[in-house]
Design goal:
Helix content is 46%, strand content 11%. The two termini are 30 Å apart. The mean pLDDT is 97. The chain is an alpha/beta fold. Helix 8 packs across helix 9. It is globular. The protein binds coproporphyrinogen III.
């Protein structure tokens, strides 16, 4: 490779190799907390911006330029592939994805087309441009591709929008398991195809977001969720890029999410990182998990808590520093800049 990525601290940690410093990036590092994002998004809808290669490229690069984080995450959304195959949906500001005709029956599932690379020319173009640009930033910065895991994407399709209880989603799981299995199989294919396009165009790692998987218990996770997350992760296994798997409120599921086929398990901020590491075990690395609200605390309080996270991370196979969920839109970017610098400067002792 001539990209310089062989020196990437993020990729070394993702593969379980020794690192020059603790790598750091932030979930939702691109987006509303950045004035430069609000400026380029003026008058442009969220989905529209996710289908414009030039905007995708610019927005993905913004936090990398500003913070010098160890990885870029592709700017898109977990529901973008559904939009690309023709599902009638929108992303409403302050609300999230809203689906016009929620999925209820087997016929509804069968009406959703499979995703092919022809649906996503703007993704391929944006990834290729980004990989070229990122090669020249800080000696080579890797790009993380991502997709939504089947459960989380299914929850939007079945509920028609964001949900607190996931009552319709669970009603389908428990009451119409054949419809549920068909829906999960459909989405697994779409998410796998979305990831494949990104990796084949040059993304160096992937993250599978199962943000709302914490809504189910362990037994239901094993029966109704994990097999399809595993299918997505194994389908891109041959491409050889590290795989990160993350869910909110997933403390009870961490070992199972690892067993779905992740190299790195993202730990939500509610879990003590040391406990998360114990649950995940020595075979996989961890990512996380500073409470995203700590950026609103005085800087020395935030950095003291970040130090605790880094210290706890030493007992893991490898540790990628992140927040324990996405950047909150009202976050002051200057605090994230200070946090990035703090993590980079934090000494790595060799008593691991
Ligand atoms: O910087 C990055 O992390 C990359 C971009 C990214 C977005 N969405 C952009 C976005 C990523 C990785 C996602 C994934 C995503 N989308 C998830 C999983 C991550 C998580 O937060 O748990 C989920 C659950 C979604 C669905 C979704 N899309 C939600 C809940 C929202 C927020 C609703 C709101 O307005 O509060 C969106 C919209 C969205 N996706 C925005 C961004 C930057 C905000 C849209 C805007 O700027 O108007």
């Amino acid at each position: 490779m001539t990209t310089g990525l062989e020196h990437s601290a993020f990729l070394k940690a993702a593969r379980g190799e020794a690192v020059p410093h603790t790598p750091v990036w932030f979930m939702r590092q691109a987006g509303r907390s950045l004035p430069e994002y609000l400026k380029v998004r003026e008058g442009v809808g969220m989905l529209e911006s996710c289908m414009n290669a030039e905007l995708i490229t610019e927005i993905t690069l913004q936090p990398v330029r500003r913070y010098g984080v160890d990885a870029a995450i592709f700017f898109s959304d977990i529901v973008l592939p559904l939009k690309a195959v023709g599902v009638d949906l929108d992303i409403k500001p302050g609300v999230g994805p809203v689906v016009a005709d929620p999925v209820c029956t087997l016929a509804d599932v069968e009406a959703i087309p499979d995703l092919t690379p022809e649906h996503l020319p703007f993704i391929t173009e944006a990834v290729r441009t980004l990989v070229g640009e990122l090669a020249g930033i800080n000696g080579g910065t890797p790009l993380i591709g991502f997709a939504g895991a089947p459960f989380t994407v299914a929850s939007y399709l079945v509920e028609g929008g964001p949900s607190k209880e996931y009552a319709k989603t669970k009603a389908m799981m428990y009451g119409a398991p054949e419809v549920w299995d068909a829906l999960m199989t459909k989405i697994a294919g779409i998410s796998a195809a979305f990831l494949r396009v990104q990796v084949e165009a040059g993304a160096s790692a992937i993250q599978l977001f199962d943000s709302w998987a914490g809504a189910v218990n362990r037994d239901d996770y094993v029966r109704f969720v994990q097999p399809w997350s595993a299918r997505v992760l194994s389908s891109i296994g041959e491409l050889g890029v590290p795989k990160i798997h993350f869910g909110v409120n997933s403390g009870e599921l961490l070992d199972l999410m690892g067993e779905a086929g992740a190299d790195i398990v993202g730990v939500d901020w509610r879990v003590r990182l040391a406990d998360g590491i114990e649950r995940i075990g020595p075979e996989r690395g961890v990512q996380g998990n500073l409470d995203p609200t700590l950026v609103f605390a005085p800087t020395e309080v935030m950095t003291a808590r970040a130090a605790e996270v880094i210290e706890a991370g030493r007992t893991a196979r490898s540790h990628i520093f992140n927040l324990g969920h996405g950047v909150i839109p009202s976050t002051n970017p200057d605090q994230l800049a200070r946090l990035t610098d703090f993590v980079h400067a934090y000494p790595l002792t060799d008593d691991r």
